[in-house]
# Entry
Amino acid sequence: ETGVTQSPTHLIKTRGQQVTLRCSSQSGHNTVSWYQQALGQGPQFIFQYYREEENGRGNFPPRFSGLQFPNYSSELNVNALELDDSALYLCASSLAGLAGVPPYNEQFFGPGTRLTVL
Amino acid sequence: QKEVEQNSGPLSVPEGAIASLNCTYSDRGSQSFFWYRQYSGKSPELIMSIYSNGDKEDGRFTAQLNKASQYVSLLIRDSQPSDSATYLCAAGNTGGFKTIFGAGTRLFVKA
# Structure
């Protein structure tokens, strides 16, 4: 079984630039969620993708966008980077099952991408 | 009001003791609850999930859920120094498309 992978591991950008982060789902999973984790905080939900469509979104502006591909891998794009975007970006994959039947969205995280905006 | 609240700690327990971690949530529609362990500089690791009221045991870990009180807890028996980490509580909404995490509780297990 292949776990969740993310690339790159670290990234340094300057304010105003754009960045693309990548994630490969765990084998057998069909759903990907992205989170932003600032130092000392819990992960903050950005959005979730299922069947290549955005399935839910947290309180993040439209400059945060994503894609999911037919092989269930995913990208997170952030435009017009701001200093506050500096954080650990986590991708989590899960298997969407039958409604009302557990397990519900048990998510497994990748190692994360550390983004620094200068 | 934060959607998922945890005591930030740090919680310090001696080796071999029981560590008790607590969490409350505000969305009564939440139907799935998770505990993750996160070591410094690493990503969260799922250690327990619970969906029904009551207790769920897995090895040294016991998760407890009380939906009426909107309360979730994690007990770690026979705590080991390797259990020292931040423990994140999370609640999933109906439909499972949004999971809200607490800020985490730092646990230190003293040898």
